[in-house]
C-alpha cells in the first residue's frame, strides 16, 4: 500500500518513547478492520515531523475483500492526517524495504525575511540573502556514490555510510525552492544535514568548500546545522 | 502592507457574529505596537476559510519607525497563521480597495478517490472521473466582461453584477490543479460557484451548457454547488 501522511503530529514512522508513530496508527486501523492483529513493514523510517506522499508498506492478510473497499473503510478509521492512497496484491517475495530500488525525497523551503503562514506546514524558511548559484553548483558534488559519513547524525549505529544519490534537482516553483533527491537510500538525518550545509554555505556562514571537506574527511563539523524536519517529504519509493 | 494568512481558523477578513476576522487581529496587533487605535482598510473581504498570500491593506499612522522594524515587531504579536510580508509608505490618495486595478485568485484542487493529508489545508478534492478537457473548454466562456448574476451567492445585496475576468488559466502542477483567475473584481462566492459549476459539468452532474445558460439567464440554479472555501487563495492585488 502507499500512504500519505502529514508528519507534524507524529514521532515519525516508528513509535518512540515519547509520541505515537504513523506505523502504529495504521496497524491499529488495519487490525480493527480485519479483526486480527496486523503488522506492517514500511519501506523505511521517516523522522519525527517528516511527511510522506508515497510511503510504501506491506502486510500479510487472508481476505477476499476488494482493495477499494479496504481503503475506504480503513481511511474512515484513520485520522485526517494519515490516509491510504492505493493498495495492491503483491507476490510473496515482495518486501517494502528490501525490494525498494530507490527513493525520492523532496525538501521544500522558501526564502523570506518573514514567516509565511501558507508555507509553514511543509516548508522550511531560509532568511535572505542566499547565493543560490553557489548552492546549485555545490549541490552537484553530492550526486554519485560517496561515503556520506559526515552527513549522518552523530550517534548513528550504521556501519556502511556509502550511498548513491542518483539525482539532486533544485526547482523554483511559485515562491518555493524544491530540492528533489533520488537515491538508493539515505542515512539518518542525511537530507536535512545536506540542506543545512547548502544553506549555510549559500549564506557564507561556513566555508565554500565545506562539502568537499565533508566528503573527504567524513567530519560532520564542517557542515551546517540539521535543517527543519517539516520541510522534508518522502515522495515516492521505486521498486 | 501585504499580508499572508491561513484562513482556516477565521471568520474571513471581517469579523462576523461567530468568529474573529483577520482584519481585527491585525488591527489589534498594530494598535498594541503603535500604542494608538489603528484602523486598517483591506482590498476587499475574503470569505470564511479563504486564504491569502497577498492581501493588501492600508492604514494611517504618524511614526518614524522603519518599515522593517514595524513588520518584525508586529509579526511577533500576530499569531502563526497571519504575518505581514511587506510594508511601504504610500501617497495620501492611495486606498487599498478603491485604487485596486485587478485581483488574482487561485483555486487549488486535487483529483483523487481518497483524501490526501498533504493537500487538505488549501486544496479542495475532486472525486474522479472528471472530463478536464470539457472543463478547460467551458472555462473559456467565463473570460471577458459578463453579468455574473448567476455566479453570485443568493441573498447578496450587490446591484451591479457585471464583472470582467481578464484571464482564467488552468495549470496542472505536481498532482494539483490550479485555477488562476485575474479579474477587476469578484462577487460574493463567485469563484467558488464557478469551480463548483465547472466540476459538476466535468463530472456530468449538470448540463454541458450550464455556463451558457447561467450567463444568459442569470439563474444560479443551473450551476453546481458552491465549492469548498479552503481551496481559494487571494494571490495578489494589482494597483
Walk me through this protein's architecture.
Two copies of one chain form a homodimer. In chain A, strands 1, 2, 3, 4, 5, 6, 7, 8, 9 and 10 form a ten-stranded mixed beta sheet that branches. In chain A, helix 3 packs across helix 4. By secondary structure, chain A is of the alpha+beta class. Chain A is 22% helix and 26% strand. Chain A contains five helices and ten strands. Chain A starts with a strand and ends with a strand. In chain A, a hairpin with a 2-residue loop joins strand 8 and strand 9. The first copy, chain A, has two domains: 85 residues, 2-Layer Sandwich (Alpha-Beta Plaits), CATH 3.30.70.580; 137 residues, Alpha-Beta Plaits, CATH 3.30.70. At the A-B interface, helix 2 and strand 4 of A face helix 2 and strand 4 of B.
